[in-house]
User: Fold this.
Amino acid sequence: MTTKQRLESSLRDAMRSGNEVEKRTIRMALSNIKFEEINKGNALDETGISALLQKEIKIRREAIEDAIKANRMDLVKENEAEIKVIEHFLPKQLTEEELRSLIIELVKETQVSGLADMGKVMKLALARVQGRAPNDLVSRIVRQVLSG
Assistant:
């Protein structure tokens, strides 16, 4: 079962159970997936859906930071609940240590020498990670590994 099918199935279950947070979050995710598919003119693959879900989580984490600054704990709890719902549909996430070792291995394989080759390493790293880590984390670790 694809991630999109799992989302649609979970939406039906959430509607039956009356779980408003899950229903709202899954609807928004499916809406964004359909929007991207219309813009691209074809269906998103699993990697594209994972990237989109990662983006949704990033948006909510930024909203949590803003809500904390505004002292709105209700919004913090709401966004945290939505993140938990979205994370359920992502593949098992890599830890920073696992990601770091994967990137070190890639750097050794490609025999790159510095930050000038960051694009080459990022392209390979993102292909291997395939949505199991946020892109900004991958970028940060690649930069750290290449700079020494």
